[in-house]
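Appendix C: a fully annotated inverse folding record. The material below is reproduced so that readers can follow the format used throughout the book. The structure is listed first as tokens, followed by the designed sequence.
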């Protein structure tokens, strides 16, 4: 993987961590009642999607377990369909799809074992 792609994957992982931090101890209704939280989460998801869109085709093909199209599609929806954003979809995406994404990115970005 080239250095630029590694940086983009790191951005995706860092923003995923931020989303988890933002939502720590929050309930679903917080996205409806706390504008600052909703904006922060949406912005982080946009960064994740934009970073994913910038990852090369070669690296995407190397890691097909990552749902590249869905991640980029979420960004497109948040940016271009902003008037139709549904917090239920955001909440479900974060709780259902983000943990496996974080695990995948951590595995990809973890340094190889020195003993290997």
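Designed amino acids, in order:
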């Amino acid at each position: 993987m080239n250095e630029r792609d590694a940086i983009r994957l790191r951005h995706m992982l860092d923003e995923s961590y931020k989303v988890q931090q933002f939502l720590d101890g929050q309930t679903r209704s917080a996205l409806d009642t706390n504008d600052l939280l909703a904006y922060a989460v949406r912005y982080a998801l946009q960064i994740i999607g934009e970073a994913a869109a910038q990852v090369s085709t070669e690296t995407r093909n190397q890691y097909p377990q990552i749902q590249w199209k869905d991640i980029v599609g979420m960004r497109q929806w948040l940016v271009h369909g902003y008037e139709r954003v549904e917090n239920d979809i955001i909440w479900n995406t974060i709780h259902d799809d983000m943990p496996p994404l974080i695990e995948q990115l951590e595995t990809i970005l973890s340094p190889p074992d020195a003993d290997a």
